[in-house]
Structure prediction request, 239 residues.
Amino acid sequence: MDEDTIMDESSAALEYTKDKPVADQTAYASNFKAHQKGISKEEMVQAYSDWSKNGKYEADLNPTRYRGPLIASAALAECFNEADRSSQYILDVAAGSGRLGEELAKYGFTKIDALDPSDGMLIEAEKKNVYQNFICEYFDNDTNIPDDSYDVIIISGGMGEGHIPGNSIKKMRKIVKKGGLVVIVMRKEYLSYVEDYKNLLPMMQKMEEDKEWETVSQKIVQHYSFNKQGMVFIFRVLQ
Prediction:
């Protein structure tokens, strides 16, 4: 992706937030840069690695702008009694700087691994002292994780242009043990304008029809990211 394209996309992001404070404008532009249409995996990873430096990512996506980790952790906590949370083996996919892991730990989840393709982000996540293992890898159907490895896969903010492929929900189901959960929290509008996700809901439904998993809950949440709506999907693996 050339510099002119990046500038055009950043300008569009600034136009979206033109009536907002400058800090909100620049935060949205940074987020938009990592989600530009046509962005490659390599460009996406580099964008996050650059963004992670000097705490800028966490400053830009603080809870006043991005509530995904709060929403995702609360949704998972509702699925377990407090006494059972510490026994769940969890993979935080697209863990980023570790904010979701930090929130999960507050609910009593202790066995959490972090996966992210950006080594810069994982360096920040390690500082949280809430993860057991770190996997620097892009998540798709070729991800090198054995089947039936985890009780839970949870994703907050990992779905987007150039991010986790829509068809990799098949791999998520395989990595999770029978009876375990797949939790996906994402921006609602991506289902309609990210080309790779336009068929995501039908794929989820087909997996339910094929009894690969069942829906535990599916809901819209407000003020997920930059005051935009989010979606929370929770599936229980059946096979």
Summary: The first helix runs from residue 3 to 16. The domain at 68-237 is CATH 3.40.50.150 (Rossmann fold). Strands lie at 89-93, 111-116, 133-136, 150-156, 176-187, 213-225, 228-237.
